[in-house]
Automatic annotation (TrEMBL):
Superkingdom, taxonomy of origin: Bacteria
Protein name: Putative nitroreductase TM1586 domain-containing protein
Organism: Psychracetigena formicireducens
Alphabetical list of Gene3D superfamilies matching this protein: NADH Oxidase, putative nitroreductase (tm1586), domain 2
Transmembrane portions of the chain: none
PANTHER family (UniProt xref): NAD(P)H NITROREDUCTASE YDGI-RELATED, NADH DEHYDROGENASE_NAD(P)H NITROREDUCTASE XCC3605-RELATED
InterPro entries, per the entry: Nitroreductase-like, TM1586_NiRdase
Similarity field: Belongs to the nitroreductase family.
Lineage of the species this protein comes from: Bacteria, Bacillati, Candidatus Lithacetigenota, Candidatus Psychracetigena
Length: 266
């Protein structure tokens, strides 16, 4: 996916969760691009997949407000699906789902991570699930005005925006003066990842050639697993490293650790 990373790095800084859409249909080029993109995305990681659904979303989000605010007017959505038999299903789904979110953002589309507060039965009518698969989250897709609605302003303090904890609160061994540039950029980029209720459940530990992502012990799995949030942060971290010329690979770990990013040796 490296060919997308430069674009997604830009998207990270402009992405915002949006809930009020103007109903404008998606253009043909987007309707053509997104299913092909999903197909390519789903070949990257086993145990999770993304499905683009080009249909009116009124029934998907009908009457659902929850912590996200009322979602209205989106002409399409995407479902983030995980195989519950995979022990790393949550982080894999977060990683792939955020890949879709950033690509949609780069394509000038608005989105919003929604976990739990959607009509699961309606989504199941649109998508064929296999074996032990579950829809772990969805996102509306569409266009929004430049102005935020009153509801969006009210909920933005809880969910949206880039109000983030400082890195000294997120890093278990905070010594930025000793870190190489790629580590500082990786963590600064991961810090901007979205999470349910903006809870930011990830914690980072830096070693010579790796960064470990863990779940903070104070965040239980309520509706949305904190490991899914950590999967989102994992993608951001990897994109931040790539921006500084570093590639690597992920090693999945056991709770409360989530995964370790190993820098490829030059």
């Amino acid at each position: 996916m490296y060919e997308y990373y430069a674009n997604w790095y830009q998207a990270i800084f402009i992405r915002r969760s949006r809930r009020q859409y103007n109903g404008q249909p998606l253009p043909e080029n987007i309707i053509y691009h997104l299913p092909i993109f999903c197909e390519n995305l789903n070949n990257i990681i086993k145990g999770s997949r993304v499905v683009f659904v080009n249909t009116d979303t009124e029934n998907v989000f009908r009457g659902i407000i929850g912590s996200y605010g009322k979602i209205k007017g989106s002409p399409a959505y995407a479902a983030f699906i995980g195989d519950m038999a995979d022990p790393n299903v949550q982080e894999k789904t977060g990683y792939l789902g955020e890949s879709f979110i950033l690509e949609a953002t780069y394509q000038s589309l608005s989105t919003c991570w929604v976990g739990g507060f959607f009509n699961y039965q309606v989504v199941k009518e649109h998508i064929k699930l296999h074996n032990k698969e579950q829809v772990l989250a969805v996102t509306p897709i569409g266009y929004t005005s430049n102005n935020y609605s009153v509801m969006e302003r009210v909920t933005s303090g809880m969910v949206s925006g880039h109000k983030r904890k400082s890195l000294d609160k997120l890093c278990l061994n905070y010594t930025p003066q000793k870190w190489p540039k790629w580590v500082n950029n990786s963590l600064s980029t991961a810090r901007l990842a979205p999470s349910a209720m903006n809870r930011q459940p990830w914690r980072f530990a830096v070693e010579d050639d790796s960064i470990t992502v863990s779940v903070d012990k104070f965040f239980p799995s309520i509706i949305v697993s904190p490991r899914l949030d950590c999967g989102i942060a994992m993608l951001h971290l990897e994109i931040g490293a790539y921006q500084k010329g570093i590639t690597g690979k992920w090693e999945y770990l056991k709770h409360p650790e989530v995964a370790r990013f190993w820098r490829n040796q030059i």
